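Predict structure. Chain length: 230.
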Amino acid sequence: MPRIGTSLTNLVVALMPCASLALGALWFGQRATVRQAAGAVLATSATAAYALLGGGSRLDGAGLLLAVAGMLAFAWYGFLYRQHLGGIAPAAALPVLLGAATALLLPFALAAHEAAPGEWAGIAVLGGAVYVPAYLVQHRLILLRGPVFTAAVQLAVPFTVRLGEWATGLSGPPSAAEVFLLGGALVGIALVTLPRLKRSTSYCTTAHPTRQGATPPDRVPRTAAGEDRP
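Prediction complete.
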């Protein structure tokens, strides 16, 4: 964020559903439906346009590459977590993962900025009271519904924050463009996350073998009472 700004960072992160669809298809044997792909593209495009409304930022190639690498790494992480830690509850696995991440990042944080005690207390509150519960919910969603679903749900966060700012008086009401993009993103998220309604059929599968000249067993019509017609 200090290198490329918040808007461009959010723009890159908004690409995660599309990245998750591509990674799942290329390396993890998962098939995305046309409906899911269209929803991911719609949600990503609307969120990208929404991020650009926040104003431009100076171009920094290294910062942009770092943001893209982070986005791809987290999309990949979602699949690896589900594949290798799917049998472990998030509450049991995350302390180890978060502890390892803290051990890796803490030296860089100490060297980069001399934080005051109050700032460290704020970091502890944000991490322990806010981020950890959100992290648990996020990883539970990865296990239950998959990385693509989770990435699509995350796109609702910036819009929720914007509406929260309006509700609390921190900013004015959203503009017409923001409302339009909000609606487009929500439609895209719904296409990815909501299950497709299946039309009921009047045919049933039977166990008996097909006789010469008989109707195939998977296409035997049923009567109103539910019995197979001869």
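Summary: The longest helix spans residues 117-145.
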